[in-house]
Amino acid sequence: MPGRLRSLAGRDVLRALTHFGFEVAAIRGSHARLQRILTTGEKQTLTIPLHKALAPGTIRAIFRQGCRYIQESELRPWFFAD
User: Fold this and answer.
1) In a domain, 80, yes or no
2) How many domains does the chain have?
C-alpha cells in the first residue's frame, strides 16, 4: 500500500531535497531551481514551486522527478505518511 500523500508547502519540499545535498541555484519568481553536482561532475537539477500549499498532483510529480536521483525508499518518508 503506497501510503497517504502529505500536504506540503514548497518550503517543506525544499527542506527535504536539501537534506539529500541539493542546493538552491536560483530563485525566479515563485520557483526555486535546485541543483547538486556529483563527484563524477554530473549535474542534477530540479525545479520546485515555492507556493504555500502544493496541489497533490504537483507533490506527486516532484516525488517522481526526485526518484530519478534519490532512492525511492529514502525519499518516500518525506512525501508520504504511512
Assistant:
1) no
2) 1
23: CATH: 3.30.920.30
* Cα–Cα dist 51/69, whole Å: 23
Separation of alpha carbons 80 and 13, rounded Å: 12
Residue 64 lies in a domain: yes
Q: Are 1 and 81 in contact (CB under 8 A)?
A: no
- The model carries a pTM of 0.89
Nine cell digits for residue 50: 515555492
Burial of 71 (0-12, 13-18, 19+ CB in 10 A): exposed
d(CA 34, CA 21): 10
7 close to 53: Cβ distance less than 8 angstroms: yes
54 vs 64: CA distance, rounded Å: 15
**What is the per-residue pLDDT across 21-75, written as a single tens digit (0 to 9) for each?**
999 999 999 999 999 998 899 999 999 999 999 999 999 999 999 999 999 999 9
